[in-house]
């Protein structure tokens, strides 16, 4: 009888070890996914900042062209 109890206990311990091992592997996978997503977020933020700078630059250029065009139109009206 005591041998059966030990066998059941051994089976439960082995099952617990297997579960712990699987959970540890899952944790490692999730950590890796988290790191990858963090890198993607950082890259997306960098791209957004780059696009905002480019947008600002283009808006300044557009304003410059509009100013020049207004000046030219003003000269044409004088003539």
UniProtKB/TrEMBL annotation:
Matches recorded under Gene3D superfamilies: 1.20.5.340
Coiled-coil features, chain-numbered ranges: 6-68
Compartments in which it is found: Cytoplasm
Gene Ontology terms: biological process: division septum assembly; FtsZ-dependent cytokinesis
InterPro entries in UniProt: Cell_div_ZapB (IPR009252)
Domain of life: Bacteria
Any single Gene Ontology cellular-component annotation: cytoplasm
Keywords, comma-separated and alphabetical: Cell cycle, Cell division, Coiled coil, Cytoplasm, Septation
Principal subcellular localisation of the protein: cytoplasm
Function comment: Non-essential, abundant cell division factor that is required for proper Z-ring formation. It is recruited early to the divisome by direct interaction with FtsZ, stimulating Z-ring assembly and thereby promoting cell division earlier in the cell cycle. Its recruitment to the Z-ring requires functional FtsA or ZipA.
Quaternary structure and interacting proteins, as annotated: Homodimer. The ends of the coiled-coil dimer bind to each other, forming polymers. Interacts with FtsZ.
Membership in a protein family: Belongs to the ZapB family.
Protein name per its UniProtKB record: Cell division protein ZapB
Organism: Superficieibacter electus
């Amino acid at each position: 009888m005591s041998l059966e109890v030990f066998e059941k206990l051994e089976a439960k311990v082995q099952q617990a070890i297997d579960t712990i091992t699987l959970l540890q592997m899952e944790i490692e996978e999730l950590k890796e996914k988290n790191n990858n997503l963090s890198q993607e977020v950082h890259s997306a933020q960098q791209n957004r900042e780059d696009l905002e700078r480019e947008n600002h630059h283009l808006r300044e250029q557009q304003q410059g062209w509009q100013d020049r065009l207004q000046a030219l139109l003003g000269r044409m009206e004088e003539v």
